[in-house]
Amino acid sequence: MTLPTNLSIINNVIACNTFQCSHNIDPEIKLNMFPFLLLILLSLTWRISASAQPAEEFLRCLSLRFHNSSSIAKLVYTYHNSSYSSVLKSSAQNFRFTTPSTPTPLAIVTPFHASHIQATVYCCRKHGLQVRTRSGGHDFEGLSYTTAYKVPFVVIDLVNLRSVQVNVEKATAWVESGATVGELYYEIARKTRTLAFPAGIGHTVGIGGQLSGGGLGPLFRKYGLASDNVIDARLIDAYGRILDKKSMGEDLFWAIRGGGGGSFGIVLAWKVKLVPVPANVTACTVSKTLEQNATKLVHQWQSIARKFPKEIQSSIAIARVNSSEDGKMTIQASYGSVFLGSIDELIPLMEEKFPELGLVKEDCLEMSWAESILYGALSIIGLPLETLLNRTQKSALSQTFFKAKSDFVKQPISESGFEGLWPKFYEDEAKSAVMVLVAYGGKMDEIPETEYPYPHRAGNLYSILYVVNWEEEENKNSEKFMNWMRRVYSYMTPYVSKSPREAYVNYRDLDIGTNKFNHDKGSYTEAKVWGLKYFKNNFDKLVYVKTKVDPQNFFKHEQSIPPLF
């Protein structure tokens, strides 16, 4: 018998999963040559070494499951591909998890179709590999592309699944999980100035991650979180089935809208409800230093901002700066707001509600809602809307080294409490640190905390995001920056929520607890430590849903919802 050498025959044989295809290949060749040809494919195309047994088995499995096996070379990257490292780092937003010591995946799969994900789930399940699903790569602890467990895992990178279909007449959109928030905003803005979506200002954040954990943005006091406005979804579960809202059932549909990513399945696409906005909104910024009474103003803001009309979103960014007068270090509080209306409507409102701030017309600009997103994120006026399509824009929370934490405040912090905090911002590690306070109230007070998994609703004055950044050359001393963050977090203990000390799952923080790798009988008890902080009493319902839909705990990571064994 003559051995076939044509690559197209190799591809055809590989594509015939059970030797029942219609290609014109002699049956004897099919049966006798399949092991030989598969070995050629794996050894020549992938150059898998004998020591990489899990990767070899995984790739062999994929080759049998993919309908068009020739596409494997375009969709799957292993250590032996020259572009593996660049693909892995392409949307690794926290550079803390891109160092040589960071565990890396056996393979990265970049699917174009749902069937590619189904095949990957099947093969990972068959060969005992963990799955990490990456949408935009903004998981603060890198859990969408690495692991602290040091176990074999595969990354499913959804970068090729990013279509956005906007229906202006019905005020809805279908958006795939690999799209960024900015790509959704851009498609909306391309069609209308008077519809929006209430997600965050970080336009490089992936839709899949944002909607899985909540989604806090400039419109949330008016319309709720991004996840509150999801009306349908398509999900691949642990068994490879594609489910929509109806077929997945009420409990699972509830869980995926704010219950955290990586626990219940892989959401392919989301149907979201768009919300009305004026053709022009007003964005304002006022900055005050300690010498300009910043401490007293922050103290007053705490009790006032949550009572603002729903149309006003208000936040304060606190950081160290050099004084413009004498060049000495000081603390600056920058008050930002977005108002669904005109400047002429906002100024009288602020004069009535918060006259001490001294807001004047010169502090404000009118622009479209989409333009206000760019202004809020980058503090630059006049950027083209195409900037929303930039997936690699650097910020305090992307394309940098950072550590972050979160808190919720239910009672005003005293002036002396803030005065005790300011010296920490003068420490060396805080040169690129920021603390962001976001006012609650409005729509958030109206939604019961059990309506969705995200429970941080009525009773909160504001949330806090703490971030500290450092440069690549400083990363060898990263622990000193991490310790600075932990000292600040410790200092804030008396002033923030208690029993539990609440946290926001989209600001993931492994310091507050992790699951054991083996997920033994104690895993529920361990998970409850961090689970109550993120989800309060909704945690037990999430565990119930997980037990029902993924009892074998296929989808798991360091802070995934555990099933009850």
UniProtKB/TrEMBL annotation:
* Entry-linked Pfam families: BBE, FAD_binding_4
PROSITE patterns per UniProt:
FAD_PCMH
Cofactor or coenzyme needed = FAD
Name it: FAD-binding PCMH-type domain-containing protein
All copies of domain FAD-binding PCMH-type, residue ranges: 101-277
* Record localization: Secreted, Cell wall
* Keyword list, A-Z: Cell wall, Disulfide bond, FAD, Flavoprotein, Glycoprotein, Nucleotide-binding, Oxidoreductase, Secreted, Signal
InterPro entries in the record, alphabetically? Answer: BBE, FAD-bd_PCMH, FAD-bd_PCMH-like_sf, FAD-bd_PCMH_sub1, FAD-bd_PCMH_sub2, Oxid_FAD_bind_N
Would you identify the family this protein belongs to, as annotated?
Belongs to the oxygen-dependent FAD-linked oxidoreductase family.
Gene Ontology MF terms in the entry: FAD binding; oxidoreductase activity
